[in-house]
Design goal:
The complex is a heterodimer of chains A (about 325) and B (about 300). With about 325 residues, chain A is α/β, with parallel strands linked by helices. Chain A has two domains: about 20-75, Membrane-bound Lytic Murein Transglycosylase D, Chain A, CATH 3.10.350; about 90-320, TIM Barrel (Alpha-Beta Barrel), CATH 3.20.20. Chain A has helices at about 5-20, 40-50, 55-60, 115-125, 135-140, 160-175, 195-200, 230-250, 265-275, 310-315; strands at about 20-25, 30-35, 70-75, 85, 90, 95, 100, 110-115, 130, 150-160, 180, 205-210, 255-260, 280, 300, 320. In chain A, strands 6, 9, 10, 11, 12 and 15 form a six-stranded parallel sheet that branches. A three-stranded antiparallel sheet of chain A has the order 1-2-3. Chain A has a three-stranded antiparallel sheet with strand order 4-5-16, with no helix packed on it. In chain A, strand 10 (about 150-160), helix 6 (about 160-175) and strand 11 (about 180) form a beta-alpha-beta unit. In chain A, helix 2 (about 40-50) crosses helix 3 and helix 8 (about 230-250) crosses helix 9 (about 265-275). In chain A, about 45% of the residues are buried. Chain B is mainly alpha-helical and about 300 residues long. In chain B, about 80% of the residues lie in helices and about 0% in strands. Chain B is built from 13 helices and no strands. The longest helix of chain B has about 35 residues, at about 120-155. Chain B is elongated and about 100 Å long. The N and C termini of chain B lie far apart (about 90 Å). The chains are: A alpha/beta (about 325), B mainly alpha (about 300). Chains A and B meet through helix 1, strand 1, strand 2, strand 3 and strand 4 of A and helix 1, helix 2, helix 3, helix 5 and helix 6 of B.
Chain lengths: ~325, ~300
């Protein structure tokens, strides 16, 4: 019987010895000793709430080898929230896909073969890219979080069935998250996914389903939008229509938008903002920085004609510039 | 077996873990000294590279360890002064560039402000404003270009042909739309081009419903060609129809195999013309060609 309290005490001792307790701390940093079998990811998980922030610890500790007993400084808040350095600045590539095929060749430029898609994901995983979700992007833009080293966002527009049949198994295989933007009028049509398939994707940890409008009509002002009022009414009906379908079938309201054809306007952005949308993305290629307009994010379309070296260039997350 | 005898191995395991955990660690004093030396070296090298903000952050970690570290206090003060000078200079130059209307240079100077002082709020706001304006202007240009295309589609074709075509379209006389439009040249991008495209699609729907993949495909291709648009979704429909047509020809080829080998070969070749990746058709064609060669050899004998 006497052994039981002894075992419990020992358990605490072992836990204390293997758990980093702060050696010193102030408003900027917490200093801990790295325990055996512990690394920066563990510290980031414990102290910053996200293992993905390990790069912030590595940065302030000179990217040194992670050895048991060494002192490690953990920043209480990001040391460089704007991700601008004297030799350049970080950008966040957001990739945009549409359709996939399990055949050997794609039948049109917007279709990517399963092989090419897998190669691209493999490239990201083997090169230790952090694949962020749109809610991570929201944190970066709204909460002034830095852009992580080697980060990328994957998005898929429209809601074609090939996302479920071809892309989804590959995303699952590599544990890669993606944001799916659907236009609700399309769902259930010939080559589109069904709501049941979308519900299955939504219940996974990896897929976030968001809005691509209701009818896929352009959200910029068109010649047939005779007055500003009729134009606003058209946009509002897109917002209401897609929102209602989301609530009915997915029991959720979308908060991120991908503009159909990548077209937007000040009116459209404002109406979506008023409807509770937090971010919106175009298909205009460009750099997303921490200062980007949250309602005009740039995305890079991935075409069948792109090879792996094009892809590697698209996901390069650092713009070199002399800013001394 | 009683409880103490169950617990004993657990206690031993915990003791061993504790000893291993502690024995792997260098003494704390050693770790502290190592940390101080390493951070100082790294901070000094960053400072010499002009990375003042990064260097400052590293010196701050030493102040976390020992708030009375006089060297760290002094260097942080020096760095603060140097950073303030850099920020002031870059901010002034940036503002001057913006006031001259040179947004590009203004942005670069604001980035320099942030490289010197990462949390500089005003520089962030300046860059956010500038990036938003640039993205909005890109959007405006894109919308204007697309609206120009849409307006061009509303152009009238000469000689009242346009009205006739519209009337045919309203009546659902799609083939007549195509016949009349064939008399006009260069309909792409016009309203007639739009009606031709829609008529081809309507006819493709009819043919597909009747199982005539070949005619359906020809109408889809006609629609694509009549009014070309970027990333045409009809391309995927054409691909799907090619697949269906290839499969249907493959089945026809299979049926012909026992009656007319030459015809079967022609049909299977046709199947592969529409879908070169139809593996079943490929295998069956090879089989048919081999069979035909054997027959010829036998007949030759």
């Amino acid at each position: 019987m006497i052994l039981r309290p002894l075992a419990v005490s020992l358990l605490f001792l072992v836990a204390a010895a293997t758990q980093a307790s702060p050696l010193a701390q102030d408003e900027h940093f917490v200093l801990v000793r790295l325990q055996s079998r512990q690394n920066f990811s563990d510290l980031a998980q414990t102290w910053l709430g996200d293992a993905g922030h390990a790069w912030q610890i590595a940065e302030i500790n000179g990217n040194q080898a992670q050895l048991a007993g060494q002192l490690v400084a953990i920043p209480r808040k990001p040391v460089n929230p704007t991700s601008v350095y004297v030799d350049g600045y970080r950008v966040l590539p957001i990739l945009c896909y549409h359709q996939f095929t399990s055949k050997d060749t794609a039948s049109h430029p917007l279709e990517i073969t399963a092989r090419a898609f897998e190669e691209q994901l493999q490239y990201l995983v083997t090169n230790n890219f952090q694949i962020l979700t749109f809610s991570d992007v929201e944190k970066i833009l709204r909460e002034h979080q830095p852009i992580p080293d080697k980060a990328v966002v994957i998005t898929v527009d429209d809601g074609y069935r090939s996302v479920f049949d071809v892309a989804w198994p590959i995303l699952k295989k590599y544990g890669v998250p993606a944001t799916l933007f659907i236009y609700t009028d399309f769902i259930g049509a010939g080559s589109a996914m069904s709501w049941e398939q979308l519900q299955r994707l939504a219940s996974s940890e990896l897929i976030d389903i968001q809005s691509h409008g209701k009818s896929h009509s352009s959200l910029s002002r068109l010649p047939e939008d005779k007055t500003a009022a009729s134009y606003a009414t058209r946009i509002q009906s897109e917002i209401d229509g897609s929102g209602a379908a989301f609530r009915k079938h997915l029991d959720a309201s979308p908060v991120y938008l991908s503009y159909p054809y990548g077209n937007s306007s000040k009116t459209a952005s404002e109406l979506y903002q008023r409807a509770g949308y937090e971010l919106a993305a175009t298909v205009t290629r460009g750099d997303n920085t921490v200062f980007s307009d949250p309602y005009l994010l740039h995305r890079t379309m991935i075409y069948d004609s792109h090879n792996l070296s094009d892809f590697a260039e698209f996901v390069r997350g650092f713009k070199t510039k002399n800013l001394r | 077996m009683n409880i103490p005898s169950l617990i004993r191995p657990v206690v031993w395991a915990l003791l061993v873990s504790l000893v291993v955990a502690c024995s792997n660690m260098p003494p704390e004093r050693e770790s502290r000294a190592e940390f101080v030396e390493q951070q100082k070296n790294f901070a000094q090298s960053l400072r010499s590279e002009g990375r003042l903000a990064d260097s400052r952050s590293l010196w701050l970690t030493l102040l976390t360890l020992d708030a009375s570290d006089s060297q760290a206090i002094e260097v942080v003060a020096q760095l603060d002064q140097a950073i303030a000078r850099r920020v002031e200079d870059a901010w002034r130059k940036g503002e001057s560039a913006y006031s001259r209307g040179n947004t590009r240079d203004g942005d670069i100077w604001m980035l320099r402000v942030l490289a010197a002082q990462p949390g500089h709020e005003a520089a962030q706001q300046r860059l956010a404003k500038s990036q938003s304006a640039s993205a909005q202007s890109q959007q405006r240009d894109k919308s204007l270009a697309e609206n120009r295309i849409l307006l061009a589609r509303k152009r009238e074709a000469p000689g009242g042909v346009n009205e006739k075509i519209k009337a045919f379209y309203r009546e659902g006389a799609y083939q007549q739309v195509l016949d009349s439009a064939s008399q006009i040249s260069g309909v792409a991008g016009s309203e007639v081009g739009d009606l031709v495209r829609k008529s081809h699609i309507a006819l493709a729907d009819e043919e597909e419903a009747q199982g005539d993949w070949k005619l359906a495909l020809s109408h889809v291709q006609g629609a694509i060609a009549s009014d070309p648009i970027a990333h045409d979704p009809l391309l995927s429909r054409a691909a799907s129809l090619r697949g269906q047509l290839s499969d249907s020809l493959y089945k026809e080829g299979l049926m012909l195999m026992s009656d007319d080998l030459t015809a079967a070969i022609d049909v299977l070749k046709n199947s592969l013309f529409y879908n070169p990746y139809n593996q079943s058709a490929k295998r069956k064609l090879q089989q048919a060609q081999k069979l035909e060669a054997n027959l010829r050899r036998i007949q030759g004998k």
